[in-house]
Design brief:
heterodimer; A: alpha/beta; nine-stranded mixed β-sheet; 6 helices; about 25% helix; globular; B: alpha/beta; eight-stranded parallel beta barrel; 12 helices; about 35% helix
């Protein structure tokens, strides 16, 4: 059972739809007690960094989430802004991130030939073997839409790399904590494989 | 490498999938949910669904139909048609769609772009700009599925909606739409030069060369396809189809990349 955190930010419907399609049980919940007993957690997120952090901090879920992470036993997957929230913070906002993975989100530099946001399908390359990137027999293509990118401080926390003029970390990992910049729930079979891998952890 | 997106643009009329020509005469294509299932298998980059009669009939989105479609779509989906307030936009997003296309309602209430952007981010607001050429060659915007003039000029309106918070523009040439005769490249170029947000070119695609031209000559960030993805060929029967991965790769729809070192040099 995967618990998809509902703190009022993010596209929960499409994540739930895809998990249902690949036969993984999931619940959408904003209840701290349910979170405390979660087996696996997905942290979705779209929109502005501070807005999302504020909502999470005010949701009553923050404490329970910190506790689960400190425990180290429950796999957590942050998606898109949800991944950026796992880091120390973002150039986009003033609020601190969750600080689970030592990294920072920065804005893509403006360039005439590359529009911001980075929007569309791009190829991600594994930086190291990870349980989340098993069973990919072809290249990995995912749907991205973001204006800020993450670079990890410690290369060991890089799971996937992507290039949009600048090389950034499209996937990050520290033990049981995972984050992906793209939207696996909107990335056809590539996303299905990745989410199946997460479901199988 | 990032590739310019190819987006089937599905037109809904009374719950059925149709295809128009110059926003007028339409052909019946089939069942929308079935078609979405096929586009899933084709692994399309993204999908746009437009209820072309919602604004004309003055009603909101058909949420039951959208729910059915959202459950079938494992790619990003944009919906347009009859969205006039943030509440409706939120409902569409909650069903599992990513983007809201605002056309007619934006001319009546331009603040709608800003309101949706403020609540859900600019990346989820697409401004639909439907353009018709005048006798003098002027390119003016029309609303209500092309039925009403708005008094707005395409380039001016594109700048305006960008300023209000639209994150993308779905630019349709009514003159070219459904004709198979190629894009209005001049129109695409003038709008994509005027704004910094992505422009989705729509109206007239008949060949892979047309698509390439819209991207490379027009400066479009994405191309929306109608006839090409629902008909076998011009004047032939319905066949839901999409260029294969190899064909898409062969179209050469990659923007030139600047390397990290070049960026470092600019700093």
């Amino acid at each position: 059972m995967i618990t998809i955190l509902d703190y009022g930010v993010g596209n929960l419907g499409s994540i739930h739809n895809m998990l249902r399609r690949i036969g993984i049980e999931a619940e959408i919940s904003g209840d701290p007690q349910q979170l405390a007993s979660a087996e696996k957690i997905i942290l979705p997120g779209v929109g502005a960094f501070d807005h999302a952090m504020q909502r999470l901090n005010d949701s009553g879920l923050r404490e329970a989430l910190d506790k689960k992470v400190a425990d180290g036993k429950t796999p957590l997957l942050g998606i898109c802004l949800g991944m950026q929230m796992l880091t120390n913070g973002s150039e986009e906002g003033k609020l601190a991130g969750l600080g689970y993975i030592d990294a920072q989100a920065r804005k893509f530099p403006a360039r005439s030939n590359l529009k911001v946001p980075h929007m569309g399908w791009n190829v991600a390359m594994p930086s190291r073997p990870s349980p989340l990137t098993k069973k990919f027999d072809t290249e990995m293509r995912f749907y991205f839409v973001h204006s800020f990118f993450v670079k990890v401080e410690n290369q060991e926390n890089s799971m996937l790399k992507c290039n949009y003029g600048i090389e950034f970390d499209a996937g990050i990992q520290d033990c049981n904590i995972y984050g992906v910049q793209f939207h696996p729930e909107k990335s056809h079979r590539f996303g299905m494989t990745l989410l199946s891998n997460f479901g199988a952890l | 490498m990032l590739r310019s997106r190819l987006i089937p643009c599905l037109q809904i009329r009374k719950g059925s999938l149709v295809k128009t020509r110059q926003f007028g005469e339409f052909s019946y294509i089939g069942d929308p949910a079935n078609t979405c299932r096929i586009f899933n298998e084709c692994e399309v980059d993204e999908l746009a669904v437009v209820d072309i009669y919602a604004s004309v009939e003055g009603r909101g989105p058909n949420f039951d139909l959208l729910n059915e479609l959202a459950e079938e779509c494992f790619m990003p989906v944009a919906y347009g048609g009859g969205v006039t307030n943030v509440g409706q936009a939120e409902k569409v997003l909650r069903l599992g769609m990513e983007k809201i296309i605002v056309g007619t309602a934006g001319y009546v209430n331009p603040e709608l772009f800003a309101e949706i952007a403020k609540s859900f981010g600019t990346q989820c607001v697409i401004a639909a700009i439907d353009v018709k050429s005048g006798f003098s060659g002027s390119k003016s915007c029309r609303s209500h599925s092309g039925r009403k003039s708005t008094g707005q000029h395409a380039v001016e309106w594109a700048r305006r909606v960008e300023g209000l918070g639209a994150g993308e523009i779905l630019l349709t040439s009514i003159d070219q739409e459904g004709t198979w005769e190629g894009f209005d490249i001049e129109l695409i170029r003038s709008v994509s030069d005027a704004v910094s947000i992505p422009v989705i070119a729509h109206g007239g695609a008949g060949t892979h060369d047309d698509i390439r031209e819209a991207v490379n000559e027009g400066g479009a960030s994405a191309v929306a396809l109608g006839n090409m993805v629902v008909f076998q060929k011009k004047d032939m029967g319905v066949l839901v189809n999409f260029p294969s991965e190899a064909e898409r790769e062969a179209m050469g729809l990659h923007p030139a990349l600047v390397t990290d070192s070049e960026i470092a040099g600019q700093r």
